[in-house]
Write a structure and sequence with these properties.
Four copies of one chain form a homotetramer. Chain A is α+β, with helices and mostly antiparallel strands. In chain A, 30% of the residues lie in helices and 36% in strands. Chain A is built from eight helices and nine strands. In chain A, strands 1, 2, 3, 4, 5, 6, 7, 8 and 9 form a nine-stranded antiparallel beta sheet that branches. In chain A, strand 4 (121-135) and strand 5 (140-153) form a beta hairpin. In chain A, helix 1 crosses helix 2 (81-95). The first copy, chain A, is elongated. In chain A, 56% of the residues are buried. Chains in contact: A-B, A-C, A-D, B-C, B-D, C-D. Chains C and D meet through strand 1, strand 2, helix 3, helix 7 and strand 9 of C and strand 1, strand 2, helix 3, helix 7 and strand 9 of D. Strand 9 of chain A pairs antiparallel with strand 1 (17-33) of chain B, so a sheet runs across the interface.
Chain lengths: 296, 296, 296, 296
């Protein structure tokens, strides 16, 4: 039987649309990691633009492409979520023959073995991010990213309490100037997205390490007393505003990816769940490698 | 006692930051509405840019400005969230004397008396949105917006089931072509944001009406049988893809705000919680009034 | 026209159901507070039980009752959310003549003027909670509650870092034993629900004060340097596990509500967003006033 | 170095606590499924009770147990999340020697290959649930569960629109009484938890099938026109209130698990995101197999 192709009709109001597709699709995808293969549960949004002459996008094609991709990843695990995203937008532009643009966004929980300060092994949870888009000239932009949870200690409050303690105990001024003193600290979420130009590769595990080492301290899931004390101590020796976290990420990115082209896009965002407030502290930068070098 | 001004130090890594501030601040604000004053519980994000030479933004200034604004709104309710946003970014740029940019984003639940098809009064819940930003030349851009929940009925599935029913009951073809037949339908969230140029005003209640009438049907909280039947009937007489919802909003915006400047920014987004899928359907446009007129 | 009463049919599978109704209804309700009237945006769930002989509950009756209640609160603000809940379940049982049980749950954001340690006025955000249920013998149980966000400082990590600092600086042992030293601290959410027996009243503002003073310190939205230092200092002078927070609430409840009957139900829950972990710490008690007195 | 054991101190206020532990821990766990092994990303809460004489629970022990369990599941995938939960609470009671109770709750996204009505393979997303608790006499109660997303079509609105259509087209009354007519339909979440008594097993894939077949229709991720039409048609031939969904689950559970003991606990909950309202419809039952047989 032939069913009417309503999507292909002329729309009543002929306006071009920027993004049409499906959001919040969930898929299990098999990905090759350094020394292992992992299964990721990925949440995915997929969109194309829609010309003014077509009533509806053929949305099931997006999910069909995802389905093929998953099938293929079962046989041969994909090399990274950003390379997968690139492959997806290529197929989207081919399959939606009316579209001049396609984009995909992905995120997935991810686990890595790490160590505490005293050397105990733990498994920590992170979030992998990936994005790609393609235009009608087949220009592709893809980005790799991670979200990392750690701790920030406030540098300003530490100096204020130091002043207060010195006022109360002036005879210990020299000592109080030597040790880390009390401050507020809190859980911090920091996100890094970096463009991966054609011919270059970015390893997500490197991004995680880079971001985790940009906070006051990494956090760990199993902490016996000594390790708990060492996280507290080390984070207070390294107090950071959200602004400092973002800038530390930037300086590490500038160094690590210095071989990348100058127009490589960089986005960093850091949010601290302030323990002394009911609201959050936030810092963000959207820049390029070239602008980093220019210190803008 | 003098406490060290850590925010004002030179940062270790001197990069300019795009947005620094506080997010998820909650405030009760008193707003003048047509024929009444209302109390809104508003969630607010406030950011400035931060020069490469300054370690930290003075975040408490953002909350102080909000606090003053709330005090003033108790005495004299503000005219709209977007006008309030404009006033806030002006004060932010003045108070953060090192910043060359400020922005604020707001959202608040909002209630309006509406009628069912049979004329019964109900009170419906909507979301008000507002945004403003300012640059170093004091150029201000502000936007007013709403999010509206309604119902969409799928036009494609309706034609497919019509074909199926006609195949099964060919003797009723003419009748089946005349009546609305079964389709899937679902809850839909549609968001409209429109720039409010200097010297112009936008009434949020108008935006709500405009968006609500762009879906297959508005929904209502109290529905006795007749009204429930009328929503089902009217929405099936008016089936819409998310694409159709966005385009219907666009045509109404083009008509209603035709006196606004051509570069007035328009953003519309529609998300349907597809009843036949576990994922959502999504359509979005980011455009200007001029482009709407050009049918681009 | 008469429409079929499908809800009233015999169900295909005749099982009694425990709770049937509507969830996530939002309403603005006007409430009398000490010295002022406030507008609350309340999220409400309303359920009755359903006998095995009836196919569906008449759900629109729940929303009709809410609508009447709101109308009445406009004319005469209600005295508290828990008294409102009591009135609602009474009407539910009357209106759903087939039901032998009704319950309602409410929550609403709420704002109160508070002071920082140095005396500056700020407006802080809390959550009001209320619950009521009624059985076929008209026995009513109602509960009043609050959720409060504050700060907890870990007492264990503080003693560990004290030991570490003393090991490094043995000559300062006496001094290090005298001052609060560094620890991890974090945002904490603590919820208290207390039954309000017939003839008794509970004032939500009292519950907020009671809970806020059971954490390491209250937090405030506007903190200039001195007040920020004082929150850090005071919270480190008062380190608390989530267990300690719950027990401090219990001892204050036992004292403040000692005139209440022994079977008065008490629920306290405290969740700390651990800054040194990616997961949370949690403590909860469900008890009665009598059991508190028995120290069980 | 010896660090002070603060958790083991006497608390200032000696009250017994009901539940103390960690929440929102995430772990990847390897589970044996029919014909395959899968990797699940599991979110876990773990609690013990705390006697009045002990200041704090030793929370890191919970995460250590999880860590061991994960290690073991890498070598030998566990048979089910509920059996894993049983093993975890046993170890918790042993490791927290002061506790007389332990409980664990788990949830994980899960994917299964399914077919559309026309036979096309798709992969659908579900949620696995598991719970276990243990008391001081080593009595264990464990539960297995699933959450399934599907579609419900309202039976009441269908009869109302049928009446309306017949009034408008009385000459087609017979035909209109024969076909499914328009109604509202929406996404529905249904959750089933069933106790798994010692010596019995429950297969989660069976629970998923049982729940999915209790809604108006399952939903599928890839639907070409014919399959979309068939979901719409079949769901309208099978209209269901949330009450009907819960009762259909109950009758299938009563049949499928009739060999289980009478005191086997059953919980079913169904929530429809009503397309004609902004709020949800909700039905729940908490019962036992024996009560089902008694039709209570």
């Amino acid at each position: 039987m032939i069913y009417p192709d309503v999507q292909n009709e002329r729309p009543k109001y002929a306006y071009k649309l920027t993004r049409v597709g499906v959001s919040d699709v969930k898929k299990q995808i098999f990905v090759k990691r350094p020394n292992k293969n992992v299964t990721l549960t990925v949440t995915i949004d997929l969109y194309v633009d829609l010309p003014a002459t077509k009533k509806g996008a053929d949305m099931s094609r997006n999910v069909e492409i995802l389905s093929e991709i998953v099938e293929e990843s079962i046989k041969s695990p994909c090399s990274s979520l950003e390379n997968l995203s690139e492959e997806i937008v290529k197929r989207m532009l081919k399959r939606h023959e009316y579209a001049s643009y396609a984009e995909v966004t992905m995120s997935a929980e991810y686990f890595l073995e790490k160590s505490t300060y005293s050397g105990r092994k733990t498994v920590e949870q992170y979030t992998l991010l990936a994005k790609a888009n393609i235009d009608k000239n087949k220009n592709i932009r893809k980005m790799a990213g991670v979200k990392v949870v750690g701790i920030t200690v406030c540098p300003c409050a530490m100096e204020t309490t130091r002043t207060m303690l010195i006022e109360q105990y002036p005879e210990y001024e020299e000592f109080l100037n030597k040790i880390p003193v009390i401050s507020h600290n809190q859980r911090n979420d920091t996100t890094l997205l970096i463009e991966v130009p054609g011919g270059f590769e970015v390893e997500a595990d490197d991004l995680i390490e880079l971001v985790e080492n940009s906070m006051s301290s990494p956090t760990r899931e199993i902490l016996k007393r000594k390790d708990e004390g060492l996280i507290v101590l080390n984070s207070h020796l390294n107090p950071k505003f959200v602004e400092d976290v973002v800038r530390t990420v930037l300086t590490k990115v500038e160094e690590k990816y210095k071989g990348f082209p100058g127009d490589t896009l960089i986005q960093v965002k850091s949010v601290s769940e302030e323990s002394i407030h009911k609201h959050n502290a936030f810092a963000e930068v959207i820049t390029t490698l070239q602008d980093l070098k220019n210190k803008n």
